[in-house]
Specification:
CATH class of the largest domain: Alpha Beta
Low-confidence stretches: none
Distance between the termini: 65 Å
Shape: elongated
Number of helices: 17
Helix content: 40-55%
Strand order of the largest sheet: 3-2-1-4-5-6-7-8
Radius of gyration: 24 Å
Bound molecules: uridine-5'-diphosphate-glucuronic acid
Oligomer: single chain
CATH superfamily of the largest domain: NAD(P)-binding Rossmann-like Domain
Largest sheet: 8 strands, mixed
Number of strands: 14
Strand content: 5-15%
CATH topology of the largest domain: Rossmann fold
Structural class: alpha/beta
Number of domains: 2
CATH architecture of the largest domain: 3-Layer(aba) Sandwich
Length: about 450
């Protein structure tokens, strides 16, 4: 099928590459000429494992094209996906102006002679956005244009987006008519995954409800971690024990510094805001947010309690990305942690396998911070090591090397990557989340 994706950001680019990979002819549109120029030269603007290979392969096969022209995309696409940003406004509601602009541009460039078109919202949007998109196309489009509107939320995770897209656990699309639903079924026929076809509003809600539920799991386990700290229980054992219940499941029960990233914080705010405007203030989600914010403050106070003051303390910071396997630092808890320690006068040497450049560019990190050449030189002379991101290579680190390089073998681990007993045996003082600190030699 001929598919067009408008918006070549994280979601648009990965989705476009994967649609091409399963055999569709895909045109990716973006109004940023620099981005399109990069892509035409074979350069990938984001770090996502496996994406560069997929783009190169499908461009070479003639199934993946890039353009700045919406008109070109609208003409070629039987199905037009909208994958533009939906950033948060000051009050937590969603700025839908990019979606509206694309809907209008589609309406103004579509030609009724091009036949039936389906306009699909892929961006995460509040419920009822599909209705607005349909109204906009009707209002600004030419007479006689035949189109359907669908909502098709994505569930990909950064860092494993390609696998999530090619082997999804479910495909959800919502439409209001059978003709549109048939087109969507054809789009997804090459994928081997269960399909849930709903109405537009339900599909829109599924996305917000899914992300909120995952965030809720994280805040829940972080609250249990606080009780573990006060009672001497071990959060890792508790998570294991409750996760063995199939109804609960072990995933998204990793206690730590709380959730960050470009999705959860924004989507939880948006869901609270839309629920309020619909007349049902979602109090539970407000708590989820509050717990998430307090988790970071609690961790900082743990470090402060131990170091006494941050001023002039040399701290090694491992992790800047909002999670492992990405260079994305949007709403990164690691960045917020660095900002808090810097504001109290700490001297930070930071390291991240992928996110150093994005942190320098977008992290807004002011104060006494330097970026190390590698994971271990970051530790030279440090009085404490703070781990903020769950990169696998941090958990596999060489403990002897850590001890050798640091002034004091003292670790604050915000992601529970190590076994406390092992660290104590190695003579390292270790503080983590939801587990009692074990002093060296204990
Ligand atoms: C999330 C969802 O997992 C995807 O299903 C969804 O499609 C995506 O948002 C989106 O809306 O586009 P992502 O933001 O890439 O994906 O990252 P996650 O892997 O969900 O992690 C989010 C945050 O939660 C990270 O900061 C991570 O460190 C934290 N987290 C995750 C925990 O603190 N504990 C856990 O057990 C799991």
């Amino acid at each position: 099928m001929n598919l067009t994706i408008i918006g070549t950001g994280y979601v648009g680019l990965t989705t476009g590459a994967c649609f091409a990979e399963v055999g569709h002819d895909v045109t990716c549109v973006d109004n940023n000429p620099d981005k399109i120029a990069m892509l035409l030269k074979g350069e990938i603007p984001i770090y996502e494992p496996g994406l560069a290979e997929l783009v190169t392969k499908n461009v070479a096969a003639g199934r993946l094209k890039f353009t700045t022209s919406t008109a070109e995309g609208v003409e070629s696409g039987e199905v037009i996906f909208i994958a533009v940003p939906t950033p948060p406004m000051e009050d937590g509601s969603v700025d839908l102006s990019f979606i509206e602009k694309v809907a209008r541009e589609v309406a103004e460039t579509v030609n009724p002679e091009q036949g039936f078109k389906v306009v699909v919202d892929k961006s995460t949007v509040p419920v009822k956005t599909g209705q607005k998109v349909a109204e906009t196309i009707k209002r600004y489009g030419p007479k006689g244009v035949e189109f359907g509107v669908a909502s098709n939320p994505e569930f990909l995770r950064e860092g494993c987006a390609i696998d999530d897209l090619l082997n999804p656990d479910r495909i959800v699309f919502g439409t209001h008519d059978e003709r549109t639903a048939d087109v969507m079924r054809r789009v997804y026929s090459p994928f081997n995954a269960p399909v849930l076809a709903t109405d537009v509003e339900s599909a829109e809600l599924i996305k917000h409800a899914a992300n909120s539920f995952l965030a809720l799991k994280i805040s829940y386990i972080n609250s249990v971690a606080r009780i573990c700290e006060k009672s001497g229980a071990d959060i890792e054992m508790v998570a294991e024990g409750i996760g063995m219940d199939e109804r609960i499941g072990r995933s998204f029960l990793n206690a730590g510094l709380g959730y960050g990233g470009s999705c959860f914080p924004k989507d939880i705010k948006a869901f609270i805001s839309i629920s309020e405007s619909l007349g049902y203030p979602f109090e539970l989600l407000k708590q989820v947010e509050e717990i998430n914010d307090s988790q970071l403050d609690h961790f900082v106070s743990k470090i402060r309690e131990c170091l006494w003051v941050f001023r002039e303390k040399k701290i090694a910071l491992w992790g800047l990305a909002f999670k492992q396997n990405t260079d994305d630092v949007r709403e990164s808890v690691a960045i917020k942690l660095a900002q808090k320690m810097l504001s109290e006068g700490a001297s930070i040497s930071a390291w991240d396998p992928e996110a150093v450049e994005t942190a320098k560019k977008f992290g807004n990190l002011e104060g006494d911070i330097t970026y190390a050449e590698d994971q271990y030189s970051c530790l030279d002379g440090a009085e404490a090591l703070v781990i903020a991101t769950e990169w696998e290579q941090f958990g596999n680190a060489d403990l002897a090397e850590i001890k050798k390089r640091m002034r004091n073998p003292l670790i604050f681990d915000g992601r529970n990557l190590f076994d406390p007993v092992n660290l104590a045996q190695q003579g390292i003082e270790y503080h983590s989340v939801g587990r009692e600190p074990i002093k060296s030699g204990a």
